[in-house]
Amino acid sequence: MSPLSRLRLRLPAPLHRRALTALAAAVQHDTDTWSQAPLSLVAPASADATLFHVAVDVSDAPDLAVSYTAPGQYLQLRVPGADKPAFLAIASPPSFAASRCEFQFLVKRVPGSTVDLLCGLGRGDIVELSGIMGRGFRVEEISPPDAFPSVLIFATGSGISPIRSLIELGFRANERSNVRLYYGARNLQKMAYQERFKDWEYAGVNVIPVLSQPDERWSGERGYVQTAFLRAKHILNPSTTGAVLCGHKQMTEVCEAPKPLQDEVRMDQTNRVFCWLLRGVGCWVLDQQDEHM
């Protein structure tokens, strides 16, 4: 069974209900224990202050710190006065938890939300963290690098958060021939981590910023990440390609494949351009909704 089939499997109704029950039980198990921890940083991460850096000191929660083992894992964060917790992907790599006893996040400030309250707090304020949730990226599925030389990464907005963890953990990108990050935002004022791009490039990741509403001085890619990818001339071999999608739902589901691509690649019944990237033996996907990050 291909990775796409595993991801899109449709279960009969009784089995589907059973699977949802098991998932709910797993989530409950992950959130049975909450740990109190102080904030060590709350600061704007973008020029327009719609994205924020948030760091939490987990030195008093060593079991929680060591349970974060893979980029792409996430947790829930509770803030005093909020009606419900926020689901946050961890932006810092697992090594930060081990060496600095710290979790770092990139969050989008939405008025009236739990994250809005979080961004109004400061260093030393106490929040509550659930247990670590999810398995994260299964990087071992695209090893060794010479067997999977191409990795395509697509992120929008605060969806770049777990992508930072993936890149900075290291997946031997510099041993692969074609690792591209298409990172989309409205403009540079809304784009986080620009100060990290040079380090990511040095690690072997070709960073391609894509702006949907740039100013007249912008000479890079324009539009949306999926259209920027479609403009690229190099058609990849899906059997040796990995793909990571993290951001707006439209980015991961709406992109229809044009006829020339249908002639050159094996298309899934959904006939979407990203689907053929998932048909390869070593592909994996994280499809996170930007508004929750």
Task: Describe the protein's architecture and organization.
40% of the residues are buried. Helices cover 28% and strands 23% of the residues. Strands 4-3-6-1-2-5 form a 6-stranded antiparallel sheet. It has a 5-stranded parallel sheet with strand order 10-9-8-7-11, sandwiched between helices. The longest helix is centred in the N-terminal third of the chain and has 18 residues. By secondary structure, the chain is of the alpha/beta class. The N terminus and C terminus are likely disordered. It folds into 2 domains: 96 residues, Beta Barrel (Elongation Factor Tu (Ef-tu), domain 3); 154 residues, Nucleotide-binding domain of ferredoxin-NADP reductase (FNR) module (Rossmann fold, 3-Layer(aba) Sandwich). InterPro entries: FAD-bd_FR_type (IPR017927), FNR_nucleotide-bd (IPR039261), OxRdtase_FAD/NAD-bd (IPR001433), Riboflavin_synthase-like_b-brl (IPR017938). One of its GO terms (molecular function) is oxidoreductase activity. Pfam families: NAD_binding_1. This is FAD-binding FR-type domain-containing protein.
Rg over CA atoms, rounded to whole Å, is 19 Å
Give a short account of the largest sheet.
6 strands, antiparallel
| CATH level-4 homologous superfamily of the largest domain | Nucleotide-binding domain of ferredoxin-NADP reductase (FNR) module
The level 1 CATH classification of the largest domain is Alpha Beta
- The geometry reads as globular
Tally the structural domains: 2
Uncertain segments: 1-30, 252-293
Strand content: 15-25%
Domain FAD-binding FR-type: 32-139
InterPro entries: FAD-bd_FR_type (IPR017927), FNR_nucleotide-bd (IPR039261), OxRdtase_FAD/NAD-bd (IPR001433), Riboflavin_synthase-like_b-brl (IPR017938)
Pfam families: NAD_binding_1
GO molecular function: oxidoreductase activity
